[in-house]
Fold these 4 entries.
Entry 1:
Amino acid sequence: MTAVGKLVRFSLTTVEASRLGAFYERSLGFRLVREERLSGAPFERLFGVAGGARRLRLALGEEIVELLEFASAGRPYPVDAASSDVLFQHLAIVVEDMGAAYRRLGAVAGWTEITNGGPQSLPATSGGVAAFKFRDPEGHPLELLGFPAGSAPPRWRARGGAEPCLGIDHSAISVTDTARSVAFYEKLGLTVAARSLNRGPEQAKLDGLISPVVEVTALTPRPATPHVELLRYRDVARDASAPANNDVAATRIVFEAAAQSADGFEEMPRAILDPDGHRLLIVAPSDS
């Protein structure tokens, strides 16, 4: 398996890239950095979808989200999807001021809440962070994430400024077997950095679930942020269906291939699936 280096961007499927991009700009402070058209046989083989796609690249701080609008549209995001479903995958956006970020989001129409009762302050056993989960106008899950005063990692303290949203900390994915997923991502070159067991009324409100118990495992590439978090919900029924690349629920984590990879860069970009069907792309450094 190809070893990976840094996590270079996140890729979302969209029905209408311009409209969704405008939402991200207005509500979260993203900025448009590039717009292009992708097409041709290599693209179709990589994504398994006939026809090309329009791509918008948006930046928040140093992190990149790309929106892919395929010419051949797939299925919309399932309206009954829960935080514990296997297809669940959210982007966690670090905020300097949760109140200001939440008010800015509230001033823009089109999103729907996952979290009940506004931002939740989790206990120290669950990281002590403030968090709020919601869905963008097409259904993609997102999270506002605020660290306790004085405890934000140096990376985020250095980014303080006029905007309440600073960047993307991680992508969290729901998994069915933590050990199996850890083994998969370790083979790619990621390292377990932290583990916690999240439960209690705050977690229930955050996830919009009844009494969830969640194993959280953070896996870091080099550098450590952005990173991947595994969420294993105990004793909860989950939908195991995996979306196609042109389905709105498809989210791709894009890694740069490590320089020491034995495979070299001849077959890049490369698409792979993790054990639960979450999509990954590995690209050469020149494509990051």
Entry 2:
Amino acid sequence: MRAVTEKLGWTTVADVVAPFPTSDYSSLLTNIANSNADVFINIEFGNDGISSTKQAAQFGIMKKMQLVIPNISTYLPDGLGAEIMQGVYGTQDWYYKLEDRYPLSKIFVEDFVKRWKIRPRWTAHIAYAQTAIWADAVVRAKTFDPVAVIKTLEEGRPLELMLGPVYYRAGDHQQVRPCPVLRGKKPSEMKAKDDFFDVIEVVPARK
């Protein structure tokens, strides 16, 4: 985080580390509230993300600082509600509103809703995308043998999916893909119960 933000001229005024799991963040949030920071970056995840963010709101931190959640878990908005999530910046693996930008996202959302009667979350996107990438590699390798499939994936051939072309780097097996940046909507702006975010940017993949 520092490698990126400090190059932009940011200054890190405090690093607050919470033990896992934690239910009472009051002493940690007191330090954050008194830090005079402009931005509060919260990397807590799952239930810890919900608890720490709720308590941060109770401490009035959101009124003084811009909240950034680098990795917004699937059900974090449900646990926090739009009142807290409004104006929050963060990223997700995928968000259903990308159907407006990518034709395959639109098809995926429509078919998922038809089958399950709910909109897909990014966990559904991961499950589908990983299976599609594996299946494509199996077809190209002409075998289910894991070693051969891995070698095929390491070739780095892009596959067109719900975020455009994605592929795996051979050196570290990292998936190279765009990343959607989200901003939480005000409750009055939501058009459905899970319409929590606007997609404000899709950051291109870096090779």
Entry 3:
Amino acid sequence: MAKSSVTNPRCPGRRQFLRTAAGGAAGLASILALRQPPAYAQTRELTFLTIASFVPETDKELKRQFEEWGAKNKVKVRLDIIAHLQLQTKIAAEVQANSGHDLTGLALGDADLFFDHLTDLNDVSADVAPQNGDGSARTTI
């Protein structure tokens, strides 16, 4: 009887194995050369800047909610609370440096000052508003 050329479909052939191994080795070599893990392996972090409330318990509750959300979503969170008179200066410095906090609680009128450096989040708020209220609130950060 002639030998059957049927191979096990769950076991890759020698050439497929070599291609996969070479690709994996090249990927590992690039990670080692760059000394930086891929983005999905990096710790995610969300930073939030806001002003201190005149009711100290409010700041404690905001911090508790922020940390709870971070733990639930596996995101490292940092809440920075500053005096309200320092907010515009801090935002201006972050805009000038083109880096800073991911989210910022703006005071009345600050959105006009920093309009060109804000991201419209109306699409996000439209998705979550029906679950959390009447949906009429609009958010711009």
Entry 4:
Amino acid sequence: MPLLQGTTAQITVVSSQKVTLGGLLVDHPLHFFATDANTQVALQGVYAALDPGLYPLRIDVTQANGSTQSFEQMVLVSSANFPTDPGLDVDPTTIDPAVTGPEDQWLLSLTSVVTPEKYWSGVFQLPVGTPYCIRAGFGDRRSYNGGVYKNFHTGIDYGVCSSAHPLDIYAAADGVVVFTA
């Protein structure tokens, strides 16, 4: 605590008996996965443009006998102090909502699917070898064609630091590929 804009919150619950968990962080449902017999974890992103402030965290517990309890508290989301990139001049069609909207909806339909199975294992790691350079960071605030800084970079652009060191790319964790394009 506090949570930072643009990070992933890990909510871990350890129970003394078998329970089913659910809940909510800010306005997103929590989906828990067992990591061992008594421990469950939920991973939930904190929107990079979420205003800093207090937001609800609720955990819903259903015991084996069907009884339920909920626990709720407010959590602080702090500014990640993302840097502001220099303004970018781009072809206006590349930022036209009529063009970008359908792709945004398509990506959301792919990335918001939650399955009961946990398709990864182990600890997440950097997807690149060393040495590496970050060309553009996640959350960097962006302005296009002289507009206001209302956009942000939604990825991390890794690059080669020098021609003497090739960039090795790795999976961030062991798992199952569920989609390719």
